[in-house]
Structure formats: structure tokens, C-alpha cells
Amino acid sequence: MNFTKLSCEEFVGLAASGNPVPGGGGASALAGALGVALGNMVGALTLGKKKYADVQGDITEMKERATRLQGELLALVQKDAEAFEPLARAYGMPKESEAERAKKARIMEAALSEACGVPLLIMEKCCEAIDLQRGFLEKGSALAVSDVGVGVLLCKAALRGAALNVRINTKAMTNRIIAGELNRRIDAMLEEYEPAAEAICDAVLARLK
């Protein structure tokens, strides 16, 4: 099933069901895509306006980046679901004998590591998206500034949500060295980009007061 081809109603219905996918990772990727799309809309509302004639080139370039990010984050909705499949199979493996337990542990470790890859990518895309929202705030139409605020909050939520999906996998890993490296990567992104997103939202709010 291609989750990106579902209607909003179908996607939400599946997320509310007993199916393990789409789960938090896919929802985070979708939230990020929506956040980027709102910034992209601000760009679209800025293009062609005489008041913003001096930033038309910048806005065009930012819109191109936003369109690319939208597509990448939407693709990660599907990839997150696909990455869960090997992990689900590993959880279901038998563990009656010592040999079965050893085999399961080995395959589980590989599947857990693999499952971290997609949410890490989601986080990286969201960091780029937050930087892009700053540009739309600074150069985009003032009439749509609230959409920058909503967009950056969605990107922040996606960033944090994807981090949780990395954490639940690293917590189960037996190789604590690799787990620690992955945790440090996500912590570094959160430390830099959560405050950045909040600063953008605060700047939006200040303009609306």
C-alpha cells in the first residue's frame, strides 16, 4: 500500500487503527511535508508582487528547495512504513532454542539499526526546512506570516517526533556504542533546531501583536 496516495480521511483512519503503519515516523514525515508546503505557499503569495520585487530571485530559489523537500518528506512517509517490515518480522521470530534466540538477536540488531535510518533522514530534512522557514519569514509576504509560524511548528513537531522514533529503536539495541552515536546525532539536531524553530515562531508572533 502506498500511504501517500491515500486521502486525508483514509490516512487518519489507518493511523487510528491497529495497524503498526503508518505510525509515528510516517506521521512525522507527513507533518514535515505539510510544514514545508505552508512555507512554499508563502513564497507563492510573494512571487509577482511589486512590493517584494527585490527578493523575487531569492523566493524562487527557496520555493524550489521547498518543493524538493516536500517530495522528499512525502517519500519518507512510505519509506518509514517499509523500514518497519523487517523489524516486525524480527519481533515475530521464534526463540525457543538457544540457536533461535541467537539468530533472532542478530537479526533484531540489524533491523533496529536499519529502522533508525528513515527517522534520521526525516530529522535532517526538517532541519533544512526550519532554515527555509526563516527565509520565508524574512523575505515572504507579510500577509501570510502566520503560515510561516504554523509551518515551522509542524516542522518542529516532525523533528521531535522523528527523534522519538530513533530513540525507541536505540533503546532496544544491544550495541550501545552505535546506539550512543545515533543518540548523539539526534540530540545535536534537537539542540540546534528546536530553539531555532521557537525563535522563528516567536518572531512571527511578535509581528502579529
Q: Main beta sheet, described?
A: none
Structural class, from helix and strand content?
mainly alpha
CATH architecture: Up-down Bundle
Q: Which assembly state applies to the chains in this document?
A: single chain
- What top-tier CATH class fits best? Mainly Alpha
Q: How are helices and strands ordered from N to C?
A: HHHHHH
Which residues form runs of ≥5 with pLDDT under 50?
none
Form type: elongated
* Proportion of residues in helical segments: over 70%
Number of DSSP-assigned strands: 0
N- to C-terminal separation? 45 Å
For this structure, the CATH topology is Four Helix Bundle (Hemerythrin (Met), subunit A)
Q: How much β-strand is present in the residues?
A: under 5%
CATH superfamily: Formiminotetrahydrofolate cyclodeaminase monomer, up-and-down helical bundle
Summarize model confidence as the mean pLDDT: 94
> Helix count?
6
Count of individual domains:
1
Radius of gyration over all CA atoms, rounded: 20 Å
